[in-house]
Amino acid sequence: MLRKNPRGDFPVVHETSFVDPTAILCGKVVVGENVFIGPYVVIRADEVDEHGDMAPIVIGANSNLQDGVVIHSKDGAPVTIGQNTSIAHRSIVHGPCAIGENVFIGFNSVLFNCVVHDYAVVRHNCVVDGQDIPSNFYVPSTTHVSPDTDLSTIPKVTRDARQFSESVIHTNVGFARAYRRIQNEF
């Protein structure tokens, strides 16, 4: 469902993208080409800053937001998801937050007040709060990354992890096309 926020902003979704009928996109949301937005995703751009302004929540081309992902932002801060990025089931991305291109975020992960740079992998059940993840870094499952985290303890992305991330992106771009094609069939 696409709907206005209290300020009157309405989501803009590229015609080549697919938004599941159970998903809710509210307010100043911009969805690029060939994006797959799965069941029960909630993207809410409805909070404003002290001046009544808000930055949009932007989802880049060929990205996918899988079942139950929640994206929101505090006080109208920006949230950007780069191109070719996967946000896996039930993850939460809360602004201010920027996720680069070709990034994989695993199941149930929570990201807040951070930047995850290009080609990074954040595996399942991680928390990234107040610390940026450099390009090509691999955050193992169940890791909590905070401002106190020594980033030298975090490994680089392996070839296997990169291939897995690319296969997830490829599958979900296909889903965007396939579900768009059948969306009005009963």
Automatic annotation (TrEMBL):
Keyword ATP-binding (UniProt): no
GO MF assignments: acyltransferase activity
Keywords in alphabetical order: Acyltransferase, Repeat, Transferase
Look up keyword NADP and say if it applies.
no
> Which Pfam families does this entry report, sorted A to Z?
Hexapep (PF00132)
Fetch the SUPFAM superfamilies from UniProt. Trimeric LpxA-like enzymes (SSF51161)
Name assigned to this protein: Carbonate dehydratase
Q: Which organism is it from?
A: Pandoraea thiooxydans
The upper taxonomy is:
Bacteria, Pseudomonadati, Pseudomonadota, Betaproteobacteria, Burkholderiales
